[in-house]
Amino acid sequence: MENIRRQCPCSSGKDYEVCCKKYHQGAVPENALVLMRSRYSAYAFNLPEYIIATTHPASPQYSDNMFIWKRSISRFALNTVFHKLEVLDFKESAHMAQVVFTAFISQGGQEATFTERSYFDKVHERWLYRGGNLSQGYAPNLVTTGQLRLLPLAYYGDSILRRKGDPIVEITEDIRRLAEEMIDTMEASNGMGLAAPQVHHSIRLFVIRTPIETDKDKIEYGDINVFINPVLSMPDAETWKASEGCLSIPTLRAEVERPRGITVEYTTLEDEKVQERVSGWHARVIMHEYDHIDGLLFIDRLNKQELDKITPFLQNLEKRIHDGREL
Ligand SMILES: [Zn+2]
Ligand SMILES: [Zn+2]
Asked: How many angstroms does the Cα of residue 75 sit away from the middle of ligand 2?
């Protein structure tokens, strides 16, 4: 018989029975902060199903291999003692939220604290964990006073991803703000590039983190670049294949064949015209993002055989994202 009153690990000061338990049993958290707290206590009580059910399909943590995923959550939960949670900052808009918190834990008898800025998306009236940036140690300077600048992503199945974007007539303050928010969103989602239709704007604009190829398999990120009304021309006859992914098609990767190099002309945020010859990953990212403003996705570049292989995955993904998810 278990009838021990225990304090909720989420540091609310309340008993678990009247605090996070109801969420773990299916109640919908009223806001992202409540969700964040209930996820923390779900880790403390080793409830991998709850963690999985409240993780957004676009989260870097999301895995289609439920067995492996559950196991790794349990392994972390069982090897960690959760002492205390301190919320440093909480901001919420209609569809996005961020929570900055410090967790006081110990692992193998060693005390540890970490501070994380977590991002949440509201999907079908439910908040889901989308990802977080971890900073080691206690870092109260992560607390910001600025506005939330993350934009909701459009996912596979959303018709805006299939629309051809309109040219930008004038670089207004709105365009500048959108570009900045897209950069924040790209970085928070750990993307290499992001195109305006992916954040529900049907215009010819994309941002990238310029890839620097250090060796064959490793890519580092250089400067951030904004492309307005880009035009591609003179693709190399030589093509190469590499594995691509897309923030709008979470967790899928596939080998895409593209020209080795291409010329890109575009307008910068400062209204300057630029023409560049780019190659390798730099060209690939630009071509991938350019496809988005033309209503194309990287899966359109696959041959029929490859497309057949991933069709069940795509159907499943579309269902998961657009039909809502049960807890
Ligand atoms: Zn609680
Ligand atoms: Zn993409």
From this structure: 33
Ligand 2 centroid distance, CA of 152 (Å): 14
Catalytic annotation, residues: 289
End-to-end CA distance of the chain: 27
CATH class of domain segment(s) 159-322: alpha beta
List residues, by chain if needed, whose CB lies under 5 Å from ion ligand 2: 246
Which residues, by Cβ under 5 Å, contact ligand 1, an ion?
Answer: 8, 10, 12, 19-20, 41
Residue 46 CA to ligand 1 center (angstroms) comes to 14
Q: Is 46 exposed, middle or buried (0-12, 13-18, 19+ CB in 10 A)?
A: middle
Question: Does 16-142 match 159-322 in CATH topology?
Answer: no
Pairing label, strands 193-195, 261-267: unpaired
Q: Cα–Cα distance between 297 and 300 in angstroms, integer?
A: 6
From the options 3.40.50.720, 3.40.50.300, 3.10.450.50, 1.10.357.10, give the CATH code of 16-142. Answer: 3.10.450.50
Q: pLDDT of the chain along its 327 residues, tens only? A: 444 568 899 999 999 999 999 999 999 999 999 999 999 999 999 999 999 999 988 777 787 778 888 888 888 888 888 899 999 989 888 888 999 899 888 887 788 888 888 899 988 889 999 888 766 554 333 333 344 567 888 989 999 999 999 999 999 989 998 998 898 888 877 789 999 999 999 999 999 999 888 766 677 888 899 999 999 999 999 999 999 999 999 888 999 999 999 999 999 999 999 999 999 999 999 999 999 999 999 999 999 999 999 999 898 888 877 765 433
Please choose, from the candidates 260, 217, 256, 254, the residue with its C-alpha nearest in 3D space to the C-alpha of residue 236: 260
Residue 41 Cα to ligand 1 middle (Å): 6
Where are the domains positioned within the chain?
16-142, 159-322
Q: Relative to the alpha carbon of 156, which ligand is closest? A: 2
Classify residue 251 as left (phi > 0), alpha (psi -120 to 50) or beta.
left
